[in-house]
Amino acid sequence: DTEVTQTPKHLVMGMTNKKSLKCEQHMGHRAMYWYKQKAKKPPELMFVYSYEKLSINESVPSRFSPECPNSSLLNLHLHALQPEDSALYLCASSQPSSGRAVDEQYFGPGTRLTVT
Amino acid sequence: DQQVKQNSPSLSVQEGRISILNCDYTNSMFDYFLWYKKYPAEGPTFLISISSIKDKNEDGRFTVFLNKSAKHLSLHIVPSQPGDSAVYFCAATGSSNTGKLIFGQGTTLQVKP
Known about the structure:
The complex is a heterodimer of chains A (116) and B (113).
Chain A: E1 4-7, E2 10-13, E3 18-25, E4 31-37, E5 44-50, E6 53-57, E7 64-70, E8 73-79, E9 87-94, E10 106-107, E11 111-115
Chain B: E1 4-5, E2 10-14, E3 19-25, E4 30-38, E5 45-51, E6 56-59, E7 62-67, E8 72-77, E9 86-94, E10 102-103, E11 107-112
Parallel strand pairs in B: 2-11
Antiparallel strand pairs in B: 1-3, 3-8, 4-5, 4-9, 6-7, 7-8, 9-10, 9-11
């Protein structure tokens, strides 16, 4: 099973709402990632969890709050977002080897978020 | 500062011919490079990778070439098929073990039947 699943596929939320994006993988990977992708742009890294610990936060605003409840799950909690936060949010996972957290990352299909 | 660059936004190739996608990088600390393919409304799919200790890696129709002195890599697809039509991203990372992939801007490949 080389699948990373993400829910929901689409999400429309107002600027005062609180919502969460969910990501799950059952490949035994111990590194998980959140990316943001705008149209016609490459994915931009937001957060990296390695062995369930936050190892990278790319100076993401606090209205985005990641959570890694266990080695298979990754959440992204959203609160008080702005319209410019509308984007495709991608989750990825990889198996760290020799201390490297990167190697080949497997991506989920993404959640298309629209903030109104 | 764009550390990974794909200077061709798009490429059109006839079915059966070779597709060559190019990628340049500026950071000499990068030591691992990956290519991803992305269809609309899907997440990127890992295609092939290459370590800086190699200059070529082949997997079926896909071959990646690395020229470290020129800080350049390329992805060759032979023969190209209409199903290869997608956006291709080049990505790079360094040995800092931080787990950070730096992506290029992507090249949209269209393979015409």
